[in-house]
Amino acid sequence: MSTTPDLLPAEAPAPRLCHLIKIPTFDGYGFNLHAEKSRPGQFIGKVDSGSPAELAGMLEGDRIVEVNGVNIASESHKQVVERIRAVPNETRLLVVDSATDAWYTEHKLVPRSTQDNVHYIRTPTTGDDDVVDGELQPPANGHHTAPETVAVEQQSASLPSAKVT
C-alpha cells in the first residue's frame, strides 16, 4: 500500500477530530489521558458524562494521533499533556477507535487531520447555529481538501494516567 497522500483508499475508516472547548458548567475537559506498557500511544481513559470531551465525541479507549495538528507518536505522556494545555480553553484531538487504529496500522498508514474523510465534532457552545443532526459542522473555510498519510511510526509508552484539565 502506497503512502502517497492522494492514494488514501475509499474504504479508509474516518478518524475523528474532536474539538474540545471548555464550558462554564464543567471543570476541565472531562477525560483521563493514559499510556499502557503493553501498547504504544496515548489513550483516552474515562470520559465524564456531560463533559466537553463527551460532547466533542471522545470515547474511552480512543488513541490520540494528533494534538492541535501535531502528530504525538514520539512524544512522552508529559509532552502530550503540555500540548493539550498549550491553547487556553480549547484543544483539537485527532483520535481513532481500536478498529480504525487497526485498519491504519494494517495498511501502514497514519491518520492525519488534513484527510478528506476526517469526522469533525466540536463541543457545542452557547450561540452555535451551525448544528446539523446534533453535530456542529466545521466552518465553511475549514473543509480539508487533501488527504494525507505517511508510514506508521513505532513508539513506546509506559506512563500512568492523568486527568487533563
From TrEMBL:
- Keywords, in A-Z order: Repeat
Question: Which InterPro entries has this protein been placed in?
Answer: NHER, PDZ, PDZ_sf
Residue ranges, annotated region (Disordered): 123-146
- Quote the Pfam families the UniProt record gives: PDZ
GO terms for biological process, alphabetical: protein localization to plasma membrane
Name-wise, this protein is: PDZ domain-containing protein
Record's GO cellular component terms: apical plasma membrane
Q: Which GO terms describe its molecular function?
A: protein-membrane adaptor activity
Limits of the PDZ domain: 17-99
Region forming the signal peptide? none
**Listed PROSITE patterns:** PDZ (PS50106)
